[in-house]
Every structure is written in C-alpha cells, then in structure tokens.
Amino acid sequence: MREAIRLSIENVENGKGGPFAAVIVKDGKIIATGVNEVTSTNDPTAHAEVVAIRNACKSLSSYQLDGCEIYCSCEPCPMCLGAIYWARAAKIYFGTTKEDAAAVDFDDKFIYDEIDLSHTGRKLTTQQLLREEALVAFEKWKISPLKMKY
Ligand SMILES: [Zn+2]
C-alpha cells in the first residue's frame, strides 16, 4: 500500500494524471503497477487500476489475475471495481475512500448511484435497440468451436 501511495503522490508531482495509483501483488511480490494516465494519454479508461491490471496481465500472459491482490491508493471507482472483478483478483486493499475523492472533485459516487437505477431512471439516456438481431452473436457463441470460456 505504501508503494501505491508513493506512486500516487509522484503522479501528482510529475503531472502525468490524477492522484491515483495501484499495485498488484502475487505471492508477496509486486508484479505490476499503474498510475492514472487519463489526461496524459487522452484515455478516460486509463485509471490506475485498469493500467495496473493491463500491465499485470501482460506480465503474466493471462487474462485473469488468479491469486493476485490489488492495492489501490483510493477506493476503486465503479469502472475499476468492475475491471477488478472481471480480472478475478483475490483481494482489494484501498487507502482513501470515494468520499475523500469526491472532496477533491473526483466524484464517482454519482455513478454508484446511477447503477442502482433502472435504465429509464438514469441521467444518461439509455435505450435498447435491435435485440433480436443482436442475439445472433450469442446464438453463434453457444455453438462456436472457438469459444474460450472466461
Ligand atoms: Zn477507476
């Protein structure tokens, strides 16, 4: 966690992005780190946790982080929390909270609130289209010999 905190401070000092960092550990060893690179890479998904997951998966040559723990300098936002679940990490540690982040204008609490609402109740207009046509991909997936379950 101290390394995640150190990297988050360094990221502010060098102006690379927001005050966030993440460190991924496997078997007691750091296998990857990530810092927020949203503004320096023009990538709104380049949050520290996502960057760290990408680096860790590359280093492990795997799409899963089995047995890995992720240390986040701040409580993960909904996107990163989702990414950590998809990566199947074993444990999350975090330093500051989403309320601490909101206090310095990184307010992801509203996304957590939106998730609880139905499609029609959300601020971001969400409309379903062409379900029957879109289902074809799932029908093909069900019988695909190339399918890799994950
Ligand atoms: Zn995030």
Quickly describe the structure:
With 150 residues, the chain is an alpha+beta fold.
Could you describe the 3D structure shown?
The protein has 150 residues and is an alpha+beta fold. It has one domain (1-119): Cytidine Deaminase, domain 2. 43% of the residues lie in helices and 17% in strands. The protein is built from seven helices and four strands. Strands 2-1-3-4 form a four-stranded mixed beta sheet. The two termini are 29 Å apart. Zinc ion (ZN) is lined by residues 47, 49, 76-77, 79-80.
Name the descriptors:
17% strand, 43% helix, binds zinc ion, 150 residues, alpha+beta, four-stranded mixed sheet, Cytidine Deaminase, domain 2
Helix/strand structural class: alpha+beta
Bound molecules: zinc ion
- Arithmetic mean pLDDT: 95
- Our measurement of the CA-to-CA distance between the termini, rounded to an integer number of angstroms, reads 29 Å
GO molecular function, one term: zinc ion binding
Pfam families: dCMP_cyt_deam_1
Domain CMP/dCMP-type deaminase: 1-124
Keywords: Hydrolase, Metal-binding, Zinc
